[in-house]
Every structure is written in C-alpha cells, then in structure tokens.
Amino acid sequence: MRLLVLATFVVILNETILVNAIPRLMDSLHITEQSAQWVSTAFMLTMAAVIPVTGWFLQRVTTRQAYAIAMGVFLAGTALSAVAPSFEVLLLGRIVQAAGTAVMMPLLMTTLMIVVPEHDRGRVMGNVTLAISVAPALGPAVSGLVLQLGSWRMLFVVVLPIAALVTLFGLRKMDNIGEPQVSSIDWLSVSVAALGFGGLVYGLSLLGESGDRVGLGIGIVVAGVAAIAVFVVRQLKLQRTGVPLMDLRTLKHRTYGLSLALISVGFLAMLGSMILLPLYLQNMRGLSPLETGLLVMPGGLAMGLLGPTVGKLFDRFGSRPLVLPGSIGMVLSLGGFTQVSMTMPYWQVLGLHTLLMVSLAATFTPVFTLGMGALPPHLYSHGSSMLGTLQQVAAAFGTALVVTVMSARSGHLVADGVAAAPAAMSGMKLAFGVAAALTVVTIVVAAKLPRRIAGADDAPDHDSAAEQPIGS
C-alpha cells in the first residue's frame, strides 16, 4: 500500500511540475507563452478525458496489471519528454504521461477501500491525502529547486529513475486484489466522455485568456456541457441494459454526493490560490521562482505531514470535529488574502498559505474516507473515477474563475485611468474574495455530513446516520 501511495505521489506531482518552467521552455524551444502553457493544459485535458474510463478499466484487469500498465505508460511519457527534440514531441510525452497518471489515483482509492478495514481507513487515507492533494501543491516548489540545477529536461530526468524504482519494487511486492470482471466497453460513451470532459476543461482554460479566445472558450464550454449531458443519458440507459462506463448510481448515496461537492470546492480553492500566489509574489513583489517555491513549500509540507494525524483523529472522533474547523479555516485564509498589498510582510503570506493548506488537510482526509466508505464495494472504482474527473474540472474552473475575475477588474480600472500596478492588485484582491465566498459552501456542506458512515466498528451516536441511497 505504501508503494502504491508513493507511486501515485510521483505521477501526480508531474501535473504541476512545469508551472515554473514556462520561460525556460519558451527560450529553449522557441515558442510563445501560449504554446508553452499547453504542456500543462494538455496534461489536464488528457486526465479529464481518460479518468472516466478508469472505472471500467479497473474492473476488467488485475491490480498488478493495472499498476504495470499505468506506470509503464507514465515512464514512457517521462522518457519521451526528457529527450524531446521539439515542442510537438514534448507535448506528446506529456499526453502519454497523463494517460498513465489518470489510472493511478482511482487504482489507489479502490485498492484502499477493499483492503483496509473501516476502522483504520482514516489513518491510511491520511497517507493518501499526501499523494493526491500535496503533490500538486509541491509541484511548483520542486520545479523551482530543480531548475536551479539545470535545464527543464532535468524535471523529467530526476523523476525517471525514481518512478522506475517505485514501479519495480511495487510489482515485486504487490498482490492482486479481487477478481477481474469480463465486460465489453461502450465506445460511444468513451468518445462522448472524452469530448465532454476534455472540452469542458479546455473551454474553461480559455476563459482565463483575453480577446477572441474568451468567446471561443464559452462556445467550447457549452459544447462540452452538451456532450456531458449526452454522456449522462447514455450511462443511465446502460445502467438498465448493460455495463455503464461510469456508474452514476454512486450519486444516489447522499454522503458520497456531499463529499464530492465539498472536495470539488476545496480543490477549486487550492488550485485558485496556486495560480494567484505566484502571480502576486513574482509579478508584483519581484520574487524569483525558487523564492516563490520556498515560500509556499511549508504550507504543502504541513498539509502532507498532518495527513496521517488527521486520519487517526478521524478514526477516533469522526468527521465533524475536523471538517467544520477545516472549512472555516479555508474561508478565513482566503479572506485574509483579500488584504494583500505591496507591503504585506512575507511571514503573513506564509501564515495565510499554511492555514489554507492545514485547513485543506483537515477537510480532505475525512471527506475522502466518508464519501468512498458510503458506497458499496462494487461501486468503489466508479466512485474514485468520478472523484478524479471532478477534481480536474474543479481545477480548470478555479483557474479560469480567478484569472477572469482578476483580469476583468484590473482591465476595468485601467480603462478608468487607474495605474496598472494598483489595478492589478485590486483585481487580485477581488479574485481572492470570490474564492473565499465560494468556499463558504464547504461550511454548509460540512454541517450536513454525518460524523461517521453506517457500519463503523464504533457504536453510532446521534450524529451518525445510516447511509442509504437517496429515495430508498
């Protein structure tokens, strides 16, 4: 299980590891900033397109086969990226990387729910939080450090042997869990899911840009939503007549649905802050990528180190003593960022960011455990697949939202004659304010979550609720 967590950490780290390498890529490959951004956008798009298929895939192959395929594909993409002679080859390498990464998180979550006893899931899920939540937060910091040692290729060269060793040891020690089920795949669902979720994520990424691309982004978002609607109708039909690609009966379980909503808003807040803070620290305060990475690293480390502790507390006390304070902490930290200025002490920035990361740690571990634990075992793979898909959509939406709000506000002020720097600062404050307002939703959702799921070894109290499908 530990090797599976480590492997997931390594592959998910790569989602954000190129954030600080954009200027190097532009200079080395002679491309524009818009083109360079595609190394991150393509990764996110591929994840959004592939993850919906993983629920079906994980039921069809053994655990060892899924692990070997996922890590093998990831290693191939990493090697291709490291030696890429052109931007097009690098982009292909990132797409291959993302295809392997997309399988790992659902594999980890599904395996955990099967092999770990319910009374111990909180502790183990704390370690999982390290992989799926902290890795994206540490990506920019790690890349800032590595880029001090050499070119952007070092980001892949460093990862390659680590991933290879994790793959080798994992295959030597991993046992198969459960029996694969032979079932056909509905290729119409695969196509519509890729177009729908991929289109939605891409369209949202365009909304953060300016000019004609905003109109294009709106059109692609509308088309993506329409494709997702077709996908949903198709899955509802397949649930009655065949094998759905993504079983939507997971949403009939109230606790899972609430957990899904809370996690999505939490990821939106985390990714939104990951976009805004580097812009503030580098563009407005003049810090280097390395200095920026070092400033935000303590928050990411605190989140990871607290994961196991939060898990143990959840096993002992249930969700509410952790999730409610965590949700409130998210709102307070993002609210605090609305006071950023050209003179705000760096220790205050560090403190607010650490508060946000600690609050997310207190929230994610219990909510992941509650949500997945609310499902029957045959829906674990589909539940983790849907969770991963919505994380990608939330990340894209959070990025588009904060950038659009910031750009619109600063552009309006500049048009009114305000200087560029104060206008940009005002736009950033408003973007943080909008993110803080959205996270108020997490407090409302947290108050509706049960303390524990039904069937826990501990005797249920008045806060526990039997987990029943909605409408049953």
TrEMBL record:
Q: What Pfam family is a match, any one?
A: MFS_1
Q: How does it sit in the membrane?
A: Multi-pass membrane protein
Instruction: Provide the taxonomic classification.
Output: Bacteria, Bacillati, Actinomycetota, Actinomycetes, Kitasatosporales
Show the stretches that span the lipid bilayer.
Answer: 37-58, 65-83, 95-116, 128-146, 152-171, 183-202, 214-234, 255-281, 293-310, 322-342, 354-375, 387-408, 428-447
Task: Show where the Major facilitator superfamily (MFS) profile domain sits.
Answer: 1-454
- State the superkingdom: Bacteria
* Family to which this protein belongs: Belongs to the major facilitator superfamily. EmrB family.
Q: Which organism is it from?
A: Streptomyces lydicamycinicus
Q: Name one GO molecular function term.
A: transmembrane transporter activity
What UniProt keywords are attached to this protein's entry? Antibiotic resistance, Cell membrane, Membrane, Transmembrane, Transmembrane helix, Transport
Q: Which InterPro entries match?
A: EmrB-like, MFS, MFS_dom, MFS_trans_sf
One Gene Ontology term of the biological-process aspect is: response to antibiotic
Intracellular or extracellular location(s) = Cell membrane
What is the protein's given name? Drug transporter
Q: Give GO cellular component annotations, separated by semicolons.
A: plasma membrane
Gene3D superfamilies per the UniProt record, alphabetical:
MFS general substrate transporter like domains (1.20.1250.20), Multidrug resistance protein D (1.20.1720.10)
Answer yes or no on keyword Ribonucleoprotein.
Answer: no
